[in-house]
Design goal:
The chain is an alpha+beta fold and about 575 residues long. The structure holds adenosine-5'-triphosphate and magnesium ion. Adenosine-5'-triphosphate (ATP) binds next to strand 8, strand 21, strand 24 and helix 12.
Length: about 575
Amino acid sequence: MRVSQILNPTLREVPAEAEVVSHQLLVRAGLIRKSAAGIYTYLPLGLRVLRKIEQIVREEMDAKGGQEVLLPIIQPAELWRESGRWDLYGQELMRLNDRHNREFCLGPTHEEIITDLVRGEIRSYKQLPLLLYQIQNKYRDERRPRFGLMRGREFIMKDLYSFDRDEAGLAESYKKMYDAYTRIFTRCGLSFRPVEADAGAIGGTGGTHEFMVLAESGEAAVVYCPDCDYAANVEKAECKPAPAAVDAPAEAYRSVDTPGTKTIEQVAEFLGVAKSELVKSLLYQGDDKLFLILVRGDREINEIKVNNALGPFINLQLAGPEAVLEKLGCEPGYVGPIGAPKDLTVVADLEVPLMAKAVCGANAEDKHYVDAVPAQDFRIDQVLDLRMVEAGEPCPKCGSPLQEARGIEVGQVFKLGTKYSKALNAVFLDENGAEHPCVMGCYGIGVSRTMAAAIEQNNDKDGIIWPIPIAPYHVIVVPVNMKDDQVRETGEALYQELLKLGVEAVLDDRDERPGVKFKDADLVGYPLRVTVGSKTLANGEVELRDRKTGEVQLVKVEELAGRIQGMIREALGVK
Ligand code: ATP
Ligand code: MG
């Protein structure tokens, strides 16, 4: 392509609403344009990147025996009612009615549709395992669509579903996908880590891993062990309770005045104790149930663990001040377990009963109890792992101190088991004619999010630095002065030669100043730039610049195309 012909509107200014660098650069480099919140158009260069990622995904899915299908975006409500998700999915599901007032949704995921297909077509164990996938738009009315392609309301996902006859078969399919994902993100040139993850709203009982592209801007926090292979999303990471750090109290618990102290910090400072000697008591509303959740004062409640252990709830949330006043007769800052109403379920984190003594709210304005012994003075109904892990805590596998990193979830592999096959009756007959539900797995890759994640991980102040395998084009040829015949003609000839050798090249044939051309080339992130100027041409040479390292070498005109072809082949692993 010639740059003069490409619809590639680059911008010098950072778009005001773009908070993260990938969003800024995708817009500035002219790769995407916004249509509505979380909904984007891909311009030609953006689409090329997307297609390259899709192609890598497709090849690796096919290599594992995946068969590509294309499922409908519009899905009938009846199927979602059969699985029980029509109500459970909540506001994220984009719903619509047809002219006959029949209900539909725009698919946020395709378990229902695929299970419906399989129940109609699969009869025998001989047809299993079956791995079906598609690459397609998904729709989720995210509460906060943001960060450009990172969290869209319309986005592109690869979703594969596996159907096996038993758990052993599922384990094999899962391993195939885990390995395929590892190959995919490696081939995309990304630095990533698979981590143990929470099963979330999809449900299911088996294991699940998320594939995280490591980047400071990642929304997800992960912990990993430097000494073994343990790595987990903090939402999921198990916590080992720390033993009591202080001695048991000499006296019985009693109420003290703590005027105006509403936060853990304020109470700790006022009483001159460590935050770890306090108990944090929070009232949670789970649909129509209230819970009092207790964790040590220096810990954070993990709402996902709370929801998994006590729910699942459609809406688990911290109860508001009115609900707290009604139930406990005080402001949220003075809530505590001692004397809590009998019908309120008190659930404590593993560490709470191990505390030798504790300060807690007294359910009265400006008052706290001191010297309480949780194991004897609190009415605790359940003790569970409910808190967030922290860096430095012992690895649950080997005990070494855990380290923390941030990541962008680009994919997830998930053992569903028989949740959907049972609900929708997707069964097969075994050798003896006995009927069994298919054992399922589902495996998603955020193709458009991967594009954004690649930028988060590979950029500098000048723009994007595409890894070669997913770059929109491999090389840009920049004649610095289109009015100089020799420069223009050499540029044209090199461009044609590169195309002949199968190198994806563009020619910046615009009548612009070299500075403008260089800026655009850096912004768009072409991995290689060839600069054709009269000075070096006097020696029969052109400049070859590596976008990533900034390294420049002078190359003989007649050697250039071959040299570049070799570099690209090497980067793509082509023999
Ligand atoms: P998240 O926790 O980030 O909302 P998820 O766990 O709900 O994602 P999955 O259902 O596992 O997402 O979907 C599979 C993949 O699709 C994710 O790993 C992610 O890469 C991508 N994805 C999910 N939601 C979005 C979105 N709103 N925009 C872009 N990509 C998304
Ligand atoms: Mg996920």
